[in-house]
Each structure stands twice: as structure tokens, then as C-alpha cells.
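Fill-in record for alcohol dehydrogenase.
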Amino acid sequence: MEDKAPPPTTGLQPIRCKAAVCRKAGEALVMEEIMVASPMAHEVRIRIICTSLCYSDITVWKMKDPPGIVPRILGHEAIGVVESVGEDVNEVKEGDTVIPTFMADCGDCKDCLSNKSNLCSKLPFSVSPGMPRCGTSRFTDLNGEVIHHFLFVSSFSEYTVVDVANVTKVDPAIPPNRACLLSCGVSTGVGAAWKTANVEKGSTVAIFGIGSIGLAVAEGARLCGAARIIGIDVNQDKFEIAKQFGVTEFVNSRSLGDKSVSQVINEMTGGGADYCFECVGLPSLVQEAYACCRQGWGKTVVLGVHKPGSVLSFDSLDVLHTGKTLVGSLFGGLKPKSDIPILLQWYTDKKLELDKFVTQEMDFEDINKAFSLLIEGKCLRCVMWMNK
């Protein structure tokens, strides 16, 4: 149930603009004119420069049951310019270049003040259809019908409204078609290796699923100095691409005969990998990753998203006797406001190679083509320009 929204900021008017709206689950997005309300207290209205497509958008786009909901504006990887600010916004101003993120970083709750967590307790992550503080929407169609938000960003619109806790001010000199990648996918994968796992120089890493997130994990492991990075996937064709991201060995999980993936990895590594990353979202793969994680100090990091209610099952003696760690990683353990600028500096210093993640660029009007390419496995990241 939506709470009552605070009053709009005095003097600002709604903006009419173009958006790609999900009207029916799994059907082509509809490009239409919408109204974007003025920002309320603690909110900013952003003009999107470009947005990229993440598989999480596809996952929710297909959902016919909650947290799927229509009509909705999807999209959560983007970069834009602040068009206007609501009351009590002091962190950014009109004209600032910002990256919106689904993770809040309020800066004053116990978790945000700690270096032990990136999970804001004041504005916790959810797949809410509204704004984080009040649950209401800032979008309506031209008939006055409410259009729902997605992950507090909704970047498939020329303008969007985002809470100030969910925006990070960045250097406008960074190419926007690269900086937008740090809104979600690349940050999540690189951060999982860098922050969540704290991959050590000379260590061995196993990555289950080498799509965009898995390749970002490989990039992070490479940056951390991992000696061996083993990619596990069902598609042999991915190996050549994966080499560009630091993957040193490849295991095709469909051609192992009677052996399980964990048996093969344990044999390859002489007892298991130091760090395992599950990037697909299958409970069975989480168990396989845990099974090929080295006893005593091995760490398995879960990044994949499966359907709500999925259950992981482990033998209690296996957990007790092996001393392994299993941990989830949301947004790679990164604190957006402090860590995104570091990643952008790494890109400027040519350490973090963002360019190789972008396989297509196109106009915003071609967004349904981008969806098709990602579903067919023909792209890593497709960047769409709003008005190039």
C-alpha cells in the first residue's frame, strides 16, 4: 500500500517526456509520452544521458506475479544530469553529473557509517514499485494512470526521479557510455572480488557462469592479482571472450562425463579454489560452488538471482567440518558514494577496462532490439543513448 506522498517542491512543474513502458509482462516495451512529477523532499529529478541493459531488467520484465508489476518503467544502469532538486537536498545541485544506483547510501545510519556493510538500514534495498521513503510514484501516463518504478532508478525514461541517497556525483569528463556501467553490473562483479571476497594476489578463483556479471568478477579478480581464474559455463564459445577479462582456464559443465563440476575443479586445483563465485542464480550451482571451495579458508560468494523463495540446502556436518564461508553479495559489497569514484579513477588510470564490456550502442528507440540481443546471448552490455 502506498503511503501518502509529501508535497512537491514549490515552483517546479511536471515534465512531459518519452519513456519505454512495460505494459504487459514479457511483451515489447511501449515507447510513449509520460509525465514525470517534480522531486519531493530528499529527491532529485535527473535527465538521463544514456542507460544500459542488465539481465535483472529481463528477469523482472518476464514476471507475471510480484515483484513483477505493470505498468512499469524498468532500467537501473544509467548516468544523467540533475535537472532539479527537492527540499533538503544539499549533496548535489542542478547541472551535476550523477550515477543512480539501486543501493542507497544515506551516510548516517549505523550500517552506512560502518565499513563492515554496504546495506543501508534507513533505506533498505527492495524491488518496491515506488520511491523508497514514501512508496509513491513520480510517473503517470497521459491519462493520469500511475506507472510504477523499478529498483528506485527507472532509467528507461528521458527523465526520472531518484532519492538523493541513491545518486553518486561523478566527474562529467568520464565518457557517459562507460560510466553508466558502474550503476550495477560491472560494479557488482568487480566489487564482489575486491570487497566481498577480498581476493588475494596469487589465489585461485572459480566463476560459475561467465555472462556479464561473471566476466566482471573475472575483471575484479584480475585487478586483485589472482593467479588462476577458472570460468565454468555451458557455452564453449564464451571462453575466447572470457580470456579478454583474465579467465585463464575454462570448464564446459556439459562435457564432464560422469564427473560433477566440483569434482573436476577440486582435481584441477588440488583440493578446491580459494574463492568461488556463483553468478547464475541456481541453487544447485551454489551447492557445487561451495563443494569445490577449499576447506579451511575457502569462500563462496553468491551473486546470482533466482526466483523468490528458492532454498539452499547443505549438509550440516559439511558446514561444520570444512570451515568454509558462504556469503551473499549485493552490489558487490560496494558503498556507492565512496567506491564508484574509485572505480572511475581505475578506469581513468586504465586499470579497470570498461570498454570491453560494451558490445553494442544504439538509440533509445531501439530498446526492444537491445532486449532481444541480450536474451539471445548476443551482447554483454548494450548502451542506449537518449539523445545522441
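KEY FINDING: The chain has ten helices and 17 strands.
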